[in-house]
From TrEMBL:
PROSITE patterns: G_TR_1, G_TR_2. Pfam families: eIF2_C, GTP_EFTU. NCBIfam families: eif2g_arch, PRK04000.1. GO terms for cellular component: cytosol. It comes from Candidatus Thalassarchaeum betae. This is protein-synthesizing GTPase. Its EC number is 3.6.5.3. It catalyses: GTP + H2O = GDP + phosphate + H(+). InterPro entries: eIF2G, eIF2g_C, eIF2g_dom_2, eIF2g_GTP-bd, G_TR_CS, P-loop_NTPase, T_Tr_GTP-bd_dom, TIF2_gsu. GO terms for biological process: formation of translation preinitiation complex. Keywords: GTP-binding, Hydrolase, Initiation factor, Magnesium, Metal-binding, Nucleotide-binding, Protein biosynthesis.
Length: 399
């Protein structure tokens, strides 16, 4: 769920799932999403062809398990321009995307452009465009907005994507939106996946202040399993892990722990497979998982962990122009410069890299914080322009 700040992503997530994902105290104060928000729901279809979300049967009845289509997890990504790194992290764990655009504002806004560019870089091709807030504009403005959106999508990865007018606040057209999601965002075939790989997007300490030592619960990690499966009792590694001192230098070593319990879709499970979001309970010291301390790490079993990179050799593909919704000529993306600092996003991980060498479409970056990723993984690159980081392109990890 991506788009410009204040276009209604969190409200739509709540309308489809019943979960308000802005739970962080600063988010509540500022009224915007700062961290990635998560919510699970289920989609159903009645015998006479009507679509509905969990808890919203069109006849007011209880959900009918015989009408269940599938369970869906939403990632509500921030829209504010200074939070692009978090949004790109969200894109990395999506099988598809809903791009929200409010009918109340001219399209495109700057973050709308940037989020669509991020989806293109992340390779997210299954997209449904949601024209929100149709309840507070005139019919003429709704039609005009639809034309703006259609023109904006021409020539992009979302050209031809369905554009569904909705009112998230009043639950208008949610059945049509669910049908579009079912038609446009299929469940990937993961039957051939081997091993297990999870991108950690959040981590928590669920203990209340003052809890007695014998009542303390271990640390919780949450995120998306992108390959294979994990089961209760599995021994796992989390990398890059933690800093360790030795021989006069700082090194990194993976965290070794076990899976004590698994939750997905609000249910306690014995095992969890690729697709959707889940929470993993571990015996780790909760201090190591508090306040998203492990966000950006990768979880796998022993022997299945991707390499940890402190230096990246990249095959580059820079954008021609800076992504912007402003008027006038777009700003060209200048080539990378030696010793330039760039923000690097790999799956849910964010680091800063210094360009140590550049030759044509090849570059080497020295990372301030290491990342764990498979060779060939796609990363995004952002450059500091004024007070914010601006998306300038992507690269794939050589190796």
């Amino acid at each position: 769920m991506v788009g410009h700040v204040d276009h209604g992503k969190t409200t739509l997530t709540q309308a489809l799932s019943g979960v308000w994902t802005d739970t962080h105290s600063e988010e509540r104060k500022r009224g915007i999403s700062i961290k990635l928000g998560y919510a699970d729901t289920a989609f159903y279809k009645t015998a006479d062809g009507r679509f509905y979300a969990k808890g919203k049967h069109p006849d007011g009845k209880d959900d009918d398990e015989g009408e269940l289509l599938r369970v869906v997890s939403f990632v509500d990504a921030p829209g504010h321009e200074t939070l692009m790194a978090v949004m790109i992290s969200g894109a990395s764990i999506m099988d598809g995307a809903m791009l929200l655009i409010a009918a109340t504002e001219k399209c495109p806004q700057s973050q709308t452009r940037e989020h669509l560019a991020a989806l293109q870089i992340a390779g997210i091709e299954n997209i449904v465009v949601v024209q929100n807030k149709i309840d507070i504009v005139t019919r003429e403005r709704a039609v005009e907005s639809h034309g703006e959106i259609k023109g904006f999508l021409e020539g992009t990865i979302a050209e031809g994507a369905p554009i569904i007018p909705v009112s998230a606040h009043h639950d208008v057209n949610l059945d049509i939106l669910i049908q579009a999601i079912e038609d446009s965002i299929p469940t990937p075939d993961r039957s051939l996946d081997e091993g297990g790989l999870m991108y950690v997007a959040r981590s928590f300490d669920t203990n209340r202040p003052g809890s007695r030592p014998d009542k303390l619960q271990g640390g919780i990690i949450g995120g998306s399993i992108v390959a294979g499966s994990f089961s209760v009792g599995d021994s796992i590694l989390i990398a890059p892990g933690r800093r360790v001192q030795g021989g006069g230098k700082t090194d990194w070593e993976p965290i070794r722990t076990t899976i004590e319990s698994v939750r997905g879709g609000g249910l306690a499970l014995e095992s969890v497979h690729a697709g959707g979001l889940c929470g993993i309970a571990t015996p780790m010291d909760p201090v190591s998982t508090k306040a998203d301390e492990l966000s950006g790490q990768v979880m796998a079993r022993e022997g299945e962990l991707p390499p940890v990179w402190e230096k990246l050799d990249l095959d580059l593909e820079l954008l021609e122009n800076m992504v912007s919704g402003g008027e006038g000529e777009p700003e060209k993306v200048r080539p990378l410069q030696p010793n330039e600092m760039l923000m690097v996003n790999s799956a849910t991980a964010t680091s800063v890299g210094t360009v140590s060498s550049i030759k044509g479409s090849k570059a080497t970056l020295q990372l301030r914080l290491p990342i764990c990723a498979k060779p060939g993984s796609r990363i995004t690159l952002s450059r500091r322009v004024g007070s914010r980081w601006r998306l300038i392109g992507h690269g794939s990890i050589g190796g």
